[in-house]
Design brief:
199 residues, alpha+beta, Ribosomal Protein L9, domain 1, Ribosomal Protein L9, domain 2, 2 domains, four-stranded mixed sheet, three-stranded antiparallel sheet, 7 helices, 50S ribosomal protein L9, chloroplastic, ribosomal protein, RNA-binding, ribonucleoprotein, rRNA binding
């Protein structure tokens, strides 16, 4: 009886080890599968504002493709057949313009979330601003600090002549985005001259 019990115990331990080994292998495979299959290539079947143009190929999350694009018939899976089907539309897409639009769209989202920019200039002996901030200065600051290309004509503001916080409006497409401009005094910190240099 003890011999049978021992045999059954060994058999169960062996079976459990085989199961654990199989589970670890399949677990790793599932993990690798999920890592390499997070995104899918799609082709838009119509123009979608701030996303892309008809015939444009995009790479998006699988869930986003399934629950938004495919569910609303806004896109199809990108493969040899669909690429050929939408080839005429993709030829007419200005991808450089689209790239700039996407970069601007991302920058606009960040700007909308933050809602402010900072501009610094020197002051006179009395501590007052000497140079007014214009639409060109704001456009330059947006490009340099945010990577956002905005035509100065799309910046609604009066020249800012005094330090402080001032409200302006940036027109981007059909959107008007309120932005706070912090006009601050540029302070130069002079390093003390060492005693050895004084001699």
């Amino acid at each position: 009886m003890l011999s049978n019990l021992y045999k059954n115990t060994c058999r169960n331990v062996y079976s459990q080890s085989i199961f654990n080994h199989y589970k670890s292998i399949t677990g790793i495979n599932q993990l690798n599968y999920s890592k390499t299959n997070k995104k899918v290539s799609i082709i838009l079947t119509e123009d979608i504002e701030s996303i892309g143009q008809k015939g444009e190929e995009l790479e998006v999350a699988k869930g986003y493709a399934r629950n938004f694009f495919f569910m609303k018939n806004l896109a199809v899976h990108a493969n040899h057949e669909t690429r050929k089907q939408y080839e005429e539309f993709s030829k007419n897409i200005d991808y450089e313009t689209r790239r700039i639009e996407k970069e601007n769209s991302n920058a606009i989202k960040k700007l909308t979330k933050d809602g402010k920019i900072t501009v610094m200039r020197k002051s006179d002996a009395s501590g007052n601003a000497t140079v007014p901030i214009t639409v060109d200065n704001i456009a330059y600051s947006l490009k340099r600090r945010r990577g956002l290309v905005i035509d100065p004509k799309n910046i609604i503001m009066q020249p800012i002549e005094n330090y402080g916080t001032h409200n302006i409006t940036i027109v981007f497409g059909s959107k008007e985005i309120p932005v706070a401009v912090n006009y601050e005094r540029l302070v130069h910190i002079t390093k003390p001259v060492s005693s050895s240099l004084k001699k």
